[in-house]
Design goal:
Radius of gyration: 20 Å
CATH architecture: 3-Layer(aba) Sandwich
InterPro entries: CHLI-like, Mg_chelat-rel_C, Mg_chelatse_chII-like_cat_dom, P-loop_NTPase
Number of helices: 12
CATH class: Alpha Beta
Protein name: Magnesium chelatase ChlI-like catalytic domain-containing protein
Number of domains: 1
Order of helices and strands: EHHEHEEHEHHEEEHHEHHHH
Strand content: 5-15%
Number of strands: 9
Mean pLDDT: 89
GO molecular function, one term: ATP binding
Length: about 240
């Protein structure tokens, strides 16, 4: 989750540039979904880039989750093996946001109809942005927030605790001084970061070559117990954090 009005959307849109290249299995999974949704161009037989989906906050539940008379994949499945970016998260309907909880947990969404049900894969990286308040300037050192306490509470209450719990990293994006940005001598570019990510993914892929998974995020409880052996000091630190 990202908040404040100072560059969060730009940061989110740059994330695909540092993600690792698709494995063949991932490409095939994405291609199947886009083919079912009639979104596969005739000149592209195989999707080779990670999806980046950024639906507008007015999207319907069916558009986000999937459905229709003949159930088709929604945005969460079209973002499979890629990024789903929800800009201005509180502006999405409460029901649409709540419907994200199970797919985030399971990596799959089931669309039920009276006579049948269809399941689509939906293992995506969710990035959500929101302002700290309706006007966007709560806590800003330069501009004064014009929102009342009740407005701020109402704005933040649009997002449930269980959904927030499923977002692993919450980042505040403060105002950045223009001069500070211009004076930066060396900034790591996306290519350098991506190389580092690729090395880490290669290590993980080799580690799990016999487990039918290829990255840490896919580990089951049993695999976590097998691969994540930590000493007592690390356990104590973990207990304190929880």
């Amino acid at each position: 989750g990202l908040n404040s009005p100072f560059g969060k959307t730009m940061l989110a849109r740059r994330l695909p540039t540092i993600l690792p290249s698709l494995a063949l299995e991932e490409s095939i999974e994405i291609t199947k979904l886009y083919s079912i949704a009639n979104l596969l161009p005739p000149d592209i037989p195989l999707v080779t880039e990670r999806p980046f989906r950024a639906p507008h906050h007015t999207i319907s539940n069916v558009g986000l989750i999937g459905g229709g008379r003949t159930p088709k994949p929604g945005e969460i499945s079209l973002a499979h093996n890629g990024v789903l970016f929800l800009d201005e998260l509180p502006e999405f309907s409460r029901s649409a946001l709540e419907s994200l909880r199970q797919p985030l947990e399971d990596g799959i969404v089931t669309i039920s109809r009276s006579l049948s049900s269809v399941s689509y894969t939906s293992s995506f990286m969710l990035i959500a942005s929101l302002n700290p308040c309706p006007c966007g300037f709560y806590g800003d050192p330069v501009k004064v927030c014009t929102c009342s306490s009740s407005q701020i509470v109402k704005y933040r209450s649009k997002i449930s605790g269980p959904l927030l719990d499923r977002i692993d990293i919450h980042i505040e994006v403060p105002r950045v001084n223009c001069r500070e940005v211009m004076e930066k001598d060396s900034v790591e570019n996306s290519f350098a970061i991506r190389e580092r990510v690729e090395r880490a993914r290669k290590t993980q892929s080799e580690r799990y070559c016999k487990d039918s998974i290829f990255c840490n995020a896919q580990m089951t409880k049993k695999q976590i117990q097998e691969y994540c052996n930590i000493n007592d000091n690390a356990k104590n630190l973990l207990y304190k954090a929880i």
